[in-house]
Structures are given as structure tokens and as C-alpha cells.
Amino acid sequence: MSDDRSPNESISADHGGADRSDVITLFPGQASDQAIGRVAVVGTYVPRKCGIATFTSDLVEQLGRYHGELEVDVHALVDANDPLEYDGVAREIVQDDAEGYRRAAQAINDSGADVVWLQHEYGIFGGECGEMVCDFVDRIAAPIILTLHTVLAEPGDKQREILAHLLSRAAQVMVMSEHSADLLARLYGTGRERLTVIPHGAPDRPFGRQDQFKAHLGLSDRPVLMTFGLLGPGKGIETVIEALPAIADHHPDVVYRIVGATHPNLVAEHGESYREGLQDLAAQLGVADRIEWVDRFLDTPELLDQLEACDIYLTPYPNLQQSTSGTLSYAVALGKAVVSTPYIHARELLSGGVGQLFEPGSSQAVAEAVNGLLDRPEALLAMQRRAYEKGRETIWPRFADAAASLVDKCLGEQRSVASRLFAAPGMGGFMGMCDDVGMIQHAIGTVPDRSHGYCLDDNARALILMNMTDRMEAREADRFAAMFASFVQHAFDPSQGKFRNFMAYDRTWSETCGSDDSNGRAIWALGHTASRGRTEDLRWWARGLFDQALAGFADIDSPRAVAFATLGAVGRLEGEKDHAGATAMLQRGGAMLHGLLEDSRRPDWAWFECVLGYDNPRLSQALIEAGRALDRPEWLASGLSSLRWIAEQQTSAQGNFRAVGSESFHQPHEVLPFDQQPLEAQAAVEAAMSAFDATQDRFWYGHATTAYRWFLGDNDRRVVLADLASGRCRDGITPRGANRNCGAESILAFQLAHYAVVALAHVQRAESSGEVIENQRLPRQPATHFR
């Protein structure tokens, strides 16, 4: 394999000095046999003539040979100007076609890929510095393993921007040298837990067969030197040619074999002028007859045969920043003595007498090194044996084991979700986020972050939770309910007829009027409490404030705010079926949402708006509930059809829930996978509960439990977000895994989703067994709290 990169596409020679003890280096014997899944490999691929294409091919071939439990699909990056026949690939991605990357990402998501393994080099993707790769990774839902074939010590601004973006998306990052890992940690702050060094793989062939392969090439009894790769000025071949006269003086039969075609880009711009210049130099020095030119690109088997025929392999590269050379790995594994400049890969691989290093551009040093080995056959043989022994660490079985282990690491620990599906969460984490004012909004990890104070949104949701919980002593739950009700009451500004939302930790309001959505959510909590509050006094309070707040809501027309208020009106009518204000709110909400859906619907986008936001299923849920309450079958049908559409968007090819990512917000007709937030899973559970209540269609029970399992680890990153013991929940899923913070919104989303899925399971079981349920509508709280 060749590794042909320009000097500007290599990594720094500075070793940095960072502690490497916590960077994982995978070698043979460390692989896991638990890595079972589907892997989508993206990169250039054979028959394309480039080093990364060969690497991608090797990766796929060796995983298939040694880890057949992995199903591997190849998505090949292709150059439209160089059409080739690709065999055995799942898809071709034209490197300069922006839309092609989008289609490919969707195809990969639809394929059910468990892991996407992306090969990165700036020059193989379209756009400035290959920037089209950024849009591609943004659309990938599965964990991404990023193999970096180039890490620049001094990247340009655009290059730095692109690599930083890729690193932000990668679940795991593979590099082939310790120095590259150091650079990523030092320059980009990449966490050591995400960095894995897997040395370049190499073939496993018997030692000492050069005489056999020399005879095949007609080179018996001749000392053979060799350099391989796409020819270009960065190879330093002129240095070896300049050393040949001194070598030939000592060893007249020596032959220097220069194997490989000229780089296609160089041919396109300058023809064969570089090769011709080297030939002219050899003629001038009188060593033209000591050089054998093999002017073509060799496939791997033939390359290995050619390598076996040499005694000394030379890599005279003047660029000392090169991090990877596949042929260097091959040569070492085949037991060849190597004479090389001290570029990064050579320094790491050839240490301990495995090879001999010389300063770039020094033909005298090349001649001395080569003659020193050829003059002393015992020294040459000893170096070859050391190289062969070193190569046992990187032979293909070991490389494949390390690669499979990395896939397994991305897949994460598979845990049994079924046994925990209906287990009740504790309340310790919830109570830990509360003080005598209310529920604190954010947390750093599990520690409440007082700097952001409180918000009405969370305290309104917390009030709903108190209406439902059976995990607290009654007296304690009553105290918390009164506290949250007090927060909601204090947030209301009678002069405006509206609520404020954000309160600083010093109990001062940070705004004069809260968002439309926070006002809608407050009305929702009040409607819920009006019929399900823990005490009659609390229900009486909620009815009064609901009526006041509903009057001030008349000029708010934000779709989500209207949906929230509509759900509040449903709750209000459960306790007072002829409440005029709640009925009018249902009429307004149903008509508005139905109209939005009719206006925005198109064949591939059955939604209320041209964009997706947060709490998406609430729009459908409100329309379903309004349709049922007011006997409007067309509203009910629209609510159900739109909910099924959003359910389809939020179900992966593997069948797990995939919450619409926050990066989709404000992106017309786009569904992006990250960041995924607990609020969306809760909304999916509760909207499915409304749909099941209306239809008894078991699809909705299945979707609700699928969405709830997202909290427990059935998600794109196989990460458990919810801790049943404490009742805490992480703030969501990023491309790299779980967001470690456990804020109020996330804790409440998990807790409320639990009660919804338990209530739904109770009714579903009763319906399946033919049991008559006194109230045909789904219970919205534990049976012990029915009033």
C-alpha cells in the first residue's frame, strides 16, 4: 500500500510530551468476541489508486476474514472524472456531489448500520478542504469511528474547523501513531477515552524467502534495494539515486527497484516530467543501468511479491511529518531491513534496531547505511529478523482483532432492558434538584447549578409529577406540590394576565413576560392539577388560576403553546365537562392545528410546519385529544396520521427510538439525529398513550414502550440515560454518547414517561385479557391516587 501525501498533509514532528498512559493502544490479544453488528465503512476503495483506498480495502477484507460476525457494507467515495468499476460496494458517493452525501447518509441510517467507520483525508471529500464531509456526518445516526490518516500540526483555519467538527461527531477516533494521538489531545482537546491507536496492519508471510522471489524476477544473487509508491517530489528518490554511485562502487551488482506509477494528479498537471527528471539524473551519474523502473500501480498481492524480492527497503521521504506509511508496515512485517528518514511513522516503527534512520537529503548517509548492511551480511540478517519479529505485532489477525474490538467499544454494553421496563424510578435525584423555592433548572453532572436559577417550565412539570407520583410519602408529596404551585402562582402577573418564566437564584425575575410556550405549559399544568391535584384545596386553586391564565392566553398563537394549552383544557374538562373556557380552548386549538397540518402537508412531509422542533408529538396529541373531546373525527384522523408520521421519523432502521435532534430545529424539511433530548421521548410516550386510548391499536403501545426504552439504553449510542435508583436522567445523547448533565427537564421527562408507560401497560393488558375498565380513558396517574 502506498501512502502518498504532500508535505502539507502530514503531522507535526513535535512529540508534545503529553502523558500517553491513558490512550488506548490496541494490539493482538485485546480483542473482544462480543462485537456483533453491522458496520458501514466509508472511504475511497479499490480499484481507486490511492493509499486510503487500499487501507479501506484491507480493513474490510481483514474484518471479513477474521471477524465474520460483523456485517460490513462499503460506501465508496468516487471521482466522477475517473469512472471505475467497483465490485461489492453498497453505494458509490460522488465526492463532489453535496446532495449525494445526504442521500448516502439517509441510506446508511436506513440500512440499520450499528457503526459507521469513516476514513478521513482532506483531499478525498468535496468542497473546500473536503468540507462536504461535515454535512455528511451531521446526518449519521449510528456511532462514528473516525480514522484520521492525516493530523496536521499546523492546519489552516478551514482544515482546523473541519477536523474539530469531525471530532465533535466521532464516538471513537482511531489513529495509527502515538504522536497523532498526542496531537489530537493537545491541539483539539480530544478526550483520551475516545482515542485509540491501532498500528497499520500488515501481511503475515514466512520469513527469508527473498532468493525465491528474486529468481522469479530474474534478480538472483543481486543485492536488491526497493522503494514503492506513487511517484512525486515528496518521495525523496533523488537522494537514493545520488547515493547509488557510492553503493555501486562497493556492490557492482546492486539494483535499485523504483516501483509504482507517477501520482495521477502530477501526471494530469505535468505529465511524466518528474520521472523523466529522475531518469536524467541517473544517466548523468552513470547509474541508469543500476535502476529498474516498474511504472504501474500494483495490487496488494503483487506488491507483496515485489517486496519479498528485496533486501533493503528505502523510504527517503524528505517530509518528516508523515504519520503513516502502509508499505513501511508491510516491509517490516515481511522482515526487510529498512533504511529511512526519521519521519514520524518510521521513528515509532523502526525503534530498537528494527531499521536504520538517516537525515533527509543526505545521499552520503544513505550510501553509508546501505553499504554497512550489504558489507556485513550477518548484520543485515539480524536487522531483518528484528523487523520480522516487530511485524508480528501488526499482522492482519491482530489488526482485525483490534478493529473489531473498537467496533465493540462503539456498540457499548448491551443490557437487558425488558427486566427494567416497568421498574419504578427513585425520587432522590428529583428531590436533590429542589430547594425551598422550587426545582433548580440545570445541573453540572448531578450537581445542581444555581447560576441559572429556576424556570416556570420545570416547576409546572414538577407539579404534574406530584399529581401522579406514588413514590413519595403523602405528606412529603403534598409539601412539594404546594411549593411548585406557589412557584406557578408567583410567576403569574395579573396585570398582564401572563406568566414569567425565568427566575434568578436570588428570587428576582429575569424577565417581565415568559415565552409563549412557558405560558402554554403553565396552563397545561393548571388544567392537569384542576382535575388530578393531590387535595381538593389544590384543585380549587388550580381551577381559579387556570381561568385567569386562559383569559390572558387569547393573543398567543404559537403552535406548541396552543397545543400545551389545549392539553391543559382537556384536563380541565375532566373535572368540569361543560367548562366554557376550556371548551373554547379545545375548539381554537383543534381548528388551528388541523388547519396548519392541511396547509403544510405534502407527500413526503405530513407535518404541521416545514420544520421540526422540540416536543413534536404534542402537536398531534393535542389534535387527537381535541378531536375526541369535541367529536371531530377529521381532527382525530389528522392527529393520528401526523403522529404516525412523526413516529416513523423517530424510529431507526434497527427499531429503536431516535429522537429528532435539536440540530433539526429551524432546518426546513430536515430530520437530523443529534442532539437527542429526553423531552422528545417523553412526548412520544404520552402522545402514543393518547393514540392508544383513542384507537386501542397496539401499534401505539409498541411505540410508547420503544420510546421509553430509549431512556434505558435502546438508543443509537447504547447508553443508559436514566438511573432507576436515583430517578435521575442525563440531558440527552450527543454524537459522542450521553450528555453527563442531569437537569430538571430531563429528570422530569423520565419520571413522567415512566408513569405514562405504566398506565398504558395496565390498560393494554386489561384490553388484551378482556377485562372491563370502568373508565375507558387511560388513567393519567397511579390507581392509588384516583379521586
From TrEMBL:
GO terms assigned for molecular function: glycosyltransferase activity
TM helices/strands, residue ranges: none
Domain Glycosyl transferase family per the UniProt entry, residue ranges: 211-389
Coiled-coil spans in chain: none
InterPro entries the record matches: Glyco_trans_1, Glyco_trans_4-like_N
One Pfam family linked to the record: Glyco_transf_4
Domain Glycosyltransferase subfamily 4-like N-terminal: from-to ranges: 59-201
Keyword terms: Transferase
Key word Transferase present: yes
PANTHER family: BLL5144 PROTEIN, GLYCOSYLTRANSFERASE
Name the UniProt record assigns to this protein: Glycosyl transferase
Lineage: Bacteria, Pseudomonadati, Pseudomonadota, Alphaproteobacteria, Sphingomonadales
